[in-house]
Every structure is written in structure tokens, then in C-alpha cells.
Write a structure and sequence with these properties.
Blueprint (H helix, E strand, L loop, with lengths): L1 E5 L4 H12 L4 E5 L6 H6 L9 E4 L2 E4 L7 H10 L9 H27 L5 H15 L3 H7 L1 H19 L12 H14 L10 H11 L2
Helix pairs in contact: 1-8, 4-6, 4-7, 4-8, 7-9
Length: 214
């Protein structure tokens, strides 16, 4: 049985978790602290330290590259899900970069500003240190002060997605492909704290309800 090593709020872990759930693929969830990557490093023999990490028997798969889709593509190949049809590779690559750069770059700041202060001391301190090394001293507190602005930015960035969904049930096909799960992960990360809600974009909300169904 597949084991998914994850942080429960990670958008990229949520993406893989939703793929496994929606396709009824038997799996176990192993939550690890953001400050302890030992299991991931050991499982991948040092090739990866990020989540999601998938263990399937003696095989360990991580997203080893920038904009990595290795975990998603492994699940797709093994279970023949058709999430990456050849004729959609180009548009999915472009959309995934928008979703994982522009959208995630705003949404995670809102979520982090709520979630990080609630973590146990060691995990909170180590994760804050990690964020500050990348984004500067006091960044988490600054994101908390900027929530209203970040929420507006996030809503604006979602408008192109809403426009796309006006002419199609899902983003690029009449069934969910990888980019639908990718976007779902970003949105569920944004909603994870329970203190945010989706913007008033009708098509996006309709799509989100469909993606949330088992």
C-alpha cells in the first residue's frame, strides 16, 4: 500500500492526497513535522527532502526538480489515471506554473500567517526560521498584517481561472486533469485554517464543489 509522507496543510501534498482519494487508491497518510525531514531523506536516500514523498514498497518518489510533478506522474502511470494526456501537456505546463508560482505565492502567505503560530514550539521556531531565511526577518508577522491585501490579490489572481471555467466543466477538459488537482491543492491550502473563504467567483465555486466530491 502507498504511504504519503506529508505536511497536512501543504498545497502540493493536498494535491496528491486528493488524487489518491478521488480515485480510491488505497493509501496511508504519514504526517511529519516541518522541522523533521529525516524520514523523507532516508526513504529517498538523500535525493529529496521535500513533501510530498510517496513510498510504494521499496520505491520512494519525491519531487526532485523545480516544478516537480514526479509524485503525481508516478501515481498517474501506475494507476493509469490519464491526468497528463499528451495533447494537453503544453497547456498544463503553462497553467501549472501560473498556479504554483503566482497563486501559491500569495495563498501560502495567508495560510502560514494563521497556521505557523499554532504549531508546537520547536516546529514553529524552525519553520519560522526557514521562512525568514527566504523571505526576511519578521515575514510571518508581516503576512498577518497584510492579510486583507493578500486576500484581494489572491481573488484577483483567481479571476482567470473563473473565466476559463465559464466555458468548461474543468480547467482544460471535461474531466479533471492534473492542473485541476494542482489548483485544488492551492485553494485547500488557502482554506486550511478555517479563517478564509473562497472569493465570490461563481464558476470557481461550482468547480470547487465538484472537485471536493468523493
Amino acid at each position: 500500500m502507498i504511504t504519503l509522507i506529508q505536511f497536512p496543510w501543504s498545497p502540493f501534498c493536498i494535491t496528491i492526497r486528493r488524487v489518491l482519494e478521488r480515485h480510491r487508491i488505497p493509501h496511508r497518510i504519514k504526517n511529519v513535522a516541518a522541522s523533521d525531514r529525516a524520514q523523507i531523506i532516508q526513504a529517498t536516500k538523500g535525493r529529496a527532502y521535500t513533501v510530498p514523498c510517496l513510498i510504494d514498497g521499496e520505491i520512494a518518489v519525491g519531487d526532485f526538480t523545480d516544478f516537480g510533478q514526479e509524485v503525481a506522474r508516478y501515481v498517474d502511470r501506475k494507476h493509469k489515471l490519464g491526468l497528463f494526456p499528451r495533447d494537453k501537456e503544453g497547456v498544463q505546463a503553462i497553467l501549472a506554473r501560473y498556479i504554483e508560482n503566482d497563486l501559491e505565492g500569495v495563498g501560502f502567505k495567508v495560510d502560514d500567517s494563521y497556521v505557523i503560530p499554532t504549531l508546537p514550539l520547536v516546529e514553529r521556531t524552525m519553520l519560522t526560521r526557514f521562512k525568514e531565511r527566504k523571505f526576511g526577518k519578521g515575514c510571518v508577522a508581516q503576512w498577518a498584517r497584510d492579510r486583507a491585501k493578500l486576500n484581494r490579490q489572491f481573488a484577483d489572481l483567481l479571476k482567470p481561472m473563473d473565466n476559463m471555467l465559464a466555458s468548461s466543466e474543468y480547467l482544460v477538459a471535461e474531466r479533471p486533469l492534473f492542473v485541476d488537482y494542482d489548483l485544488y491543492g492551492i485553494l485547500e491550502n488557502y482554506l486550511y485554517s478555517g479563517k478564509t473563504k473562497l472569493p465570490a467567483l461563481n464558476q470557481l465555486q461550482r468547480w470547487h464543489r465538484a472537485m471536493s466530491r468523493r
